[in-house]
């Protein structure tokens, strides 16, 4: 548990100790996650300034207006790639960088019909990815109402 | 009449974790020194040359004088209680530490009554928390004179100082 | 600003990946050094503002066991959970009210204990981005870099030039952790790729470190210090969360900079400032920071480096100490910039001294893609 | 120069054990909205946002980066202040300093906690994380499990407060029944406060005395809950305050002095030089400073109401003495006579206090908020019958070594 080095000691933690969380999502976000089961991707339009948030949220950050369930609109879930990066490493959740055998593409997608960006892994060969590409959403075969319903984002030709 | 209940709808939840156990820390060798002295039945504290306070277990820095506590002092194994608490009998499954039940791990026995105390060993200016043995809860009082109880086998570990017992 | 507040003492630790000291000792030594530099005793302190975060330090209430080491025993104490420049700002505000005379600002991070990039993953939206698990400060920084490069025609070579400049500067800074003299652009580009286009040498190294600044009201400062450095302006601003923000420019820094310039009466930063010390976590950020602070038009930041304007002997040196690319003790990085500015103004920077510095700007940032920014403008007598 | 500033709006959410109808962001926004509505201003008027919570409990690092958009941080100066249990108090004082210094005209202070986001009851890992480094360190040197359990966690929740209570009772002669009385008073008061968590209308000391013993002197009925909730205040400078609020609650004095660690251990498992954790030197010094700033010479006569941070009833008694509201060792006698009740001479924590509602990050801000409500006359059912001219709000945190202390008044500083 400890190694001797210089005048100080290194104290390692016990890997079994971890804190677990379950964050409640709130009404609008629940609506969003549940409707993924119906292959619907929801967004929220601010009734005041018209800014469209995807995924939805209940307060507009620009004009501080309350956004309600009636303000939800449906968008395609696809969009344009405004930026991407090829990840050669990833975090293992325990604070270590792990080299990836197969590099991973991470994209910033400007969702069609919304103002927000969406950050997600993109299923594509790093060589073929270009800024300005159209990105589509593919659904899993099993739909349960949650993030797992989204299989991946993929370039559409 | 009792507590007013508050009922409200629940929304779904998403999960995540925080790997608290993956953190590393740097520590000085003070505790090592303390534990090794326990092996010789000596309780060591650090002495501040600024204010003369003796702190057990030894610590590094005296905040009052804002200086390092470089001197050491052996304090008496006799002391007096400054505070005590009588726990209710231990019940299995009532309390868990990191998901482990103290009764299952064998640390405590079912139905055991413990008396955790604060002891100020003579010559020191700080408390140590430990258990009081060989005493009935109704006999204990603040200021009671106690002496250290040493483990049967001294290993140079913190558990060498098992607790304290009244001086009779 | 109603009252003048001066810096009378400052110190920083040697920043390394693994400092062979406990957290308590690290902080204690730097605080002692700063107090000695200011020539005051701990008893003279009025208030102490520290800066560290629970997730980075691995302790809930990260300052709680450090009160003694920072000299806050029976002193007014508070902790700002952000970059050190924000706590400096808070301390200045406390001093302006006249409630206290002397303030000690301390900032530290133990980067070795737990990978700060993992912590950055813990800061993203738990309901969305944390579920996908791809976003952290490096990948987000890479996305920003790519977007910036694509929009303004900036190449990887331009980013490498920034790294070369800063690493070269840092080589003569004894406090820096990454000291690489004569590093070439090719080496920067060839170093380990994390998230394209960001390579290892284009991102700041994780370090342990601590910085301390001691502030005093004008009267007190003049009585104990020959050459106090005055706080002339300060500004602070936060950007929206990554999803709803314009990643192409640092809007928050623009606002923070404007507030600070206005306070200090600066209309033309290029001419009025003599030196900048900025916290650039990634090479491209220095370009964006320079643009946001009004040194170049948007997208033209690369010409500052190309034309040598921001080199150590250029017209307006940026990061002569090497900046965050040479040592990045997260919470302390901003405060280290302040310390470096003070050293430059007082002519104590030795090998990386820039001549004739009267007015300097220190910038601190916090959060993914420089979400929170603080700008401090410092001036000598 | 200390520019006059005042609280002009207060907002809080309903506190309860599980606020799963909202996300953490929406919870904080709820309080912010309520505060803005109360002050009669919009987010555009706010110049600066000071926020805080305890990040380990919700598992989100630096949460204001994400939920800043919900609490108005976006595009504004924003400072995050977090000091453990006193987070709320430090946030409130932070907002005061930002305005008092003349940097900003209107500041918003918001603090929140969402315990139910943690999978464990009371977010124990987040809490234990305070001494996690120490614990790993000591375990490596053979700290026995039995000793650990016995000493640090007698009855899980109570921890060091039990010892603190014992010290106090030894010093003052207060008995367990007095703790029952304090707890019953807090439950009763909470029933009149629509935002409080543990509400028990007409709770009597006998009801509390029926609950199980945790470890003498504490019973289950004494202990504070772990709540979800948020609170927010709007602080403004004099001109703005007078324009927007009929009776603002003015900041008169404030201080947050820290003491040596009060709980046996310092960093790296060293000892500490504090023998008696009920001595609370930090509280005494903070009170001295804040009263001096406020021009109060005799707090026993001049203070009309106190909001004390008391997760355990003993702490209400301890801190009311340490803050100079009663003579040493007499608080329980005054309490026994009903002087601290809602219609008493010096009402203490008539909102129910932390004893009834404990959303840790927000609790200390809630004390400032409730004190302000009483001065503004907006407390509703738990408004005290007498005119409140000076109210004090207290918070403690860390390892019982951090104190925030704020004096509010119905007129600005002289």
Short description:
Chain B has 168 residues and is mainly β.
Proportion in helices of chain B: under 10%
Q: Roughly what is the average pLDDT of chain C, rounded to an integer?
A: 94
Which blocks of ≥5 consecutive residues of chain C have pLDDT under 50? none
The average pLDDT value of chain B, as a whole number, equals: 89
State the total count of DSSP E strands of chain B.
12
Q: What's the tally of helices of chain B?
A: 2
Roughly how many Å is the radius of gyration of chain C? 19 Å
Q: Tell me the number of helical segments of chain C per DSSP (H or I, 4 or more residues long).
A: 14
Overall 3D shape of chain C: globular
Q: What composes the largest sheet of chain B?
A: 5 strands, mixed, barrel
How big a fraction of the residues of chain B is strand? Answer: 25-35%
Query: What distance separates the N and C termini of chain B?
Result: 50 Å
Query: How much of the residues of chain C is beta strand, in percent?
Result: 15-25%
Largest interface: C-D, 67 and 70 residues
CATH class of the domain at 5-114 and 206-224 in chain C: Alpha Beta
Helix-strand sequence of chain B: EEHEEEEEEHEEEE
Q: How many individual domains of chain B?
A: 1
* CA-based gyration radius of chain B: 21 Å
Write the layout of secondary structure elements.
The complex is a heterotetramer of chains A (157), B (168), C (381) and D (414).
Chain B: E1 13-18, E2 24-27, H1 30-39, E3 43-47, E4 54-55, E5 61-62, E6 67-68, E7 71-75, E8 78-84, H2 102-105, E9 116-121, E10 128-132, E11 145-150, E12 161-166
Parallel strand pairs in B: 10-12
Antiparallel strand pairs in B: 3-4, 3-7, 5-6, 8-9, 8-11, 9-10, 11-12
Chain C: E1 5-12, H1 23-38, E2 47-51, H2 54-57, E3 75-80, H3 84-96, E4 102-110, H4 116-123, H5 129-132, H6 137-152, H7 156-170, H8 185-190, E5 193-195, E6 198-199, E7 208-217, H9 218-224, E8 229-238, H10 251-264, H11 269-272, E9 275-277, H12 283-292, H13 301-306, H14 333-345, E10 359-366, E11 372-379
Parallel strand pairs in C: 2-3, 2-4, 9-10
Antiparallel strand pairs in C: 1-7, 1-8, 4-7, 5-6, 8-11, 10-11
Chain D: E1 5-12, H1 24-39, E2 48-52, H2 55-58, H3 64-67, E3 78-80, H4 87-100, E4 106-114, H5 124-128, H6 132-140, H7 145-152, H8 160-172, H9 176-192, H10 205-209, E5 213-215, E6 218-219, E7 228-237, H11 238-244, E8 249-255, E9 257-258, H12 281-294, H13 299-302, E10 305-307, H14 313-322, H15 331-336, H16 353-356, H17 360-376, E11 390-397, E12 402-409
Parallel strand pairs in D: 2-3, 2-4, 10-11
Antiparallel strand pairs in D: 1-7, 1-8, 4-7, 5-6, 8-12, 11-12
Helix pairs in contact in D: 4-17
Spell out the key features of this protein.
heterotetramer; A: 157 residues; mainly beta; OB fold (Dihydrolipoamide Acetyltransferase, E2P); five-stranded antiparallel sheet; three-stranded antiparallel sheet; 1 helix; C: 381 residues; alpha/beta; Peroxisomal Thiolase, Chain A, domain 1; nine-stranded mixed sheet; two-stranded antiparallel ribbon; 14 helices; 36% helix; 19% strand
């Amino acid at each position: 548990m400890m190694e001797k080095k210089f005048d100080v000691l290194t104290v390692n933690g016990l890997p079994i100790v971890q804190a677990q969380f379950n964050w409640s999502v709130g009404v609008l976000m629940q609506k969003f996650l549940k409707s993924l089961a119906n292959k619907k991707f929801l967004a929220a339009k601010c009734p005041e300034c018209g800014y469209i948030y995807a995924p939805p949220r209940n307060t507009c950050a620009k004009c501080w207006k309350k956004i309600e369930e009636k303000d939800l609109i449906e968008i395609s879930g696809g969009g344009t790639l405004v930026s991407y990066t090829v990840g050669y490493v990833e975090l293992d959740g325990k604070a270590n960088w792990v080299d990836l055998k197969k590099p991973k593409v991470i994209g910033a997608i400007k969702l069609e019909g919304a103002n927000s960006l969406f950050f997600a892994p993109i299923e594509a060969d790093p060589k073929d990815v270009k800024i300005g590409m159209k990105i589509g959403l593919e659904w899993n075969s099993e739909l349960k109402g949650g993030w797992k319903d989204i299989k991946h984002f993929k370039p559409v030709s | 009449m009792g507590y007013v209940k508050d009922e409200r709808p629940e929304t779904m939840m998403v999960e995540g974790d925080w790997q608290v156990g993956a953190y590393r820390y740097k520590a000085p060798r003070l505790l090592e020194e303390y534990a090794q002295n326990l092996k010789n039945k000596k309780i060591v504290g650090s002495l501040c040359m600024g204010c003369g306070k003796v702190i057990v277990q030894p610590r590094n820095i005296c905040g009052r004088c804002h200086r390092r506590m470089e001197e050491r002092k052996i304090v008496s194994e006799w002391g007096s209680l400054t505070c005590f608490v009588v726990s209710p009998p231990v019940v299995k499954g009532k309390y868990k530490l990191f998901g482990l039940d103290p009764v299952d791990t064998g640390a405590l026995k079912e139905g055991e009554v413990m008396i955790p105390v604060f002891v100020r060993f003579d010559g020191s200016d700080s408390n140590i928390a430990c258990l009081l043995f060989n005493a009935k809860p109704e006999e204990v009082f603040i200021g009671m004179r106690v002496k250290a109880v040493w483990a049967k086998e001294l290993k140079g570990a913190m558990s060498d100082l098992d607790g304290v017992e009244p001086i009779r | 600003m109603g009252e003048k507040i001066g810096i009378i003492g400052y110190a920083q630790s040697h920043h390394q990946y693994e400092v062979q000291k406990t957290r308590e000792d690290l902080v204690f030594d730097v605080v002692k050094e700063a107090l000695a530099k200011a020539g005051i005793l701990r008893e003279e302190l009025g208030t102490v503002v520290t800066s560290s975060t629970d997730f980075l330090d691995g302790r809930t209430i990260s300052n709680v066991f450090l009160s003694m080491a920072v000299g806050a025993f029976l002193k007014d104490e508070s902790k700002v959970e952000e970059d050190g420049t924000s706590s400096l700002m808070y301390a200045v505000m406390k001093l302006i009210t006249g409630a206290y005379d002397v303030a000690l600002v301390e900032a530290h991070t133990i980067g070795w204990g737990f990978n700060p990039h993992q912590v950055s993953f813990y800061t993203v939206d738990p309901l969305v981005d944390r579920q996908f698990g791809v976003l952290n400060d490096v990948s987000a920084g890479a996305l920003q870099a790519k977007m910036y490069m694509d929009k303004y025609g900036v190449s990887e070579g331009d980013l490498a030039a920034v790294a070369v400049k800063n690493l070269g500067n840092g080589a003569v800074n004894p406090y820096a952790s990454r000291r690489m003299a004569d590093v070439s652009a090719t080496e920067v580009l060839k170093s380990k790729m994390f998230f394209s286009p960001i390579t290892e040498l284009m991102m700041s190294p994780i370090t342990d470190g601590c910085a301390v600044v001691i502030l005093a009201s004008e009267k007190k400062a003049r009585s104990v210090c020959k050459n106090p450095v005055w706080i002339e302006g300060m500004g602070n601003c936060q950007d929206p969360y990554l999803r709803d923000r314009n990643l192409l420019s640092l809007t928050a820094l623009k606002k923070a900079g404007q507030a600070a310039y206005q306070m200090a009466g600066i209309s033309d930063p290029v001419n009025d400032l003599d030196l900048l010390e900025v916290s650039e976590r990634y090479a491209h950020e220095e370009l964006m920071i320079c643009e946001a602070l009004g040194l170049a038009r948007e997208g033209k930041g690369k010409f500052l480096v190309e034309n040598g304007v921001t080199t150590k002997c250029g017209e307006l040196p940026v990061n002569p100490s090497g900046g965050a690319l040479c040592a990045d003790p997260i919470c302390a990085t901003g405060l280290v910039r302040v310390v470096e500015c003070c050293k430059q103004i007082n002519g104590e920077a030795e090998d990386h001294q820039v001549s004739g510095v009267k007015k300097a700007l220190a910038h601190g940032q916090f959060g993914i893609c420089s979400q929170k920014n603080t700008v401090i403008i410092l001036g000598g007598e | 120069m200390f520019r006059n500033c005042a609280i002009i709006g207060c907002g809080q959410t309903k506190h309860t054990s599980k606020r799963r109808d909202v996300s953490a962001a929406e919870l904080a926004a709820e309080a912010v909205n309520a505060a803005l509505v109360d002050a009669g201003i919009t987010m555009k008027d706010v110049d600066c946002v000071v926020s805080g919570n305890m990040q380990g409990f919700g598992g989100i690092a630096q949460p204001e980066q994400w939920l800043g958009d919900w609490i108005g941080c976006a595009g504004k100066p924003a400072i995050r202040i977090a000091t453990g249990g006193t987070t709320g108090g430090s946030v409130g004082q932070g907002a005061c300093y930002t305005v008092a210094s003349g940097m900003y005209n209107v500041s918003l202070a918001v603090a929140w906690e969402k315990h139910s986001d943690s999978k464990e009851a009371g977010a124990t890992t987040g809490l234990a994380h305070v001494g996690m480094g120490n614990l790993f360190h000591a375990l490596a040197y053979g700290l026995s499990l039995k000793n650990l359990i016995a000493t640090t966690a007698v009855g899980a929740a109570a921890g060091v407060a039990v010892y603190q209570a014992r010290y106090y009772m030894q010093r003052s002669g207060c008995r367990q029944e007095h703790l029952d009385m304090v707890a019953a008073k807090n439950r009763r008061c909470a029933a009149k406060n629509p935002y409080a968590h543990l509400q028990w209308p007409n709770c009597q000391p006998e009801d509390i005395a029926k609950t199980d013993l945790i470890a003498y002197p504490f019973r289950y009925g004494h202990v504070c809950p772990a709540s979800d909730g948020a609170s927010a205040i709007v602080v403004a400078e004099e001109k703005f305050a007078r324009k927007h609020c009929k009776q603002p609650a003015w900041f008169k004095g404030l201080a947050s002095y820290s003491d040596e660690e009060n709980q046996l251990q310092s960093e790296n498992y060293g000892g500490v030089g504090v023998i008696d954790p009920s001595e609370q030197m930090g509280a005494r010094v903070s009170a001295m400073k804040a009263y001096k700033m406020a021009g109060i010479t005799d707090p026993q006569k001049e203070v009309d109401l106190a909001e004390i941070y008391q997760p355990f009833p003993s702490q209400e008694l301890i801190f009311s003495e340490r803050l100079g509201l009663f003579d040493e060792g007499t608080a329980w006698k005054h309490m026994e006579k009903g002087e601290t009740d809602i219609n008493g001479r010096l009402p203490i924590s008539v909102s129910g206090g932390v004893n009834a509602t404990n959303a840790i990050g927000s609790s200390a801000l809630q004390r400032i908020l409730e004190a302000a409500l009483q001065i503004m006359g907006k407390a509703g059912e738990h408004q005290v019958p007498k005119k409140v001219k000076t109210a004090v709000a207290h918070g403690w945190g860390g390892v019982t070594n951090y104190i925030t202390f704020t004096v509010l008044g119905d007129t600005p500083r002289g």
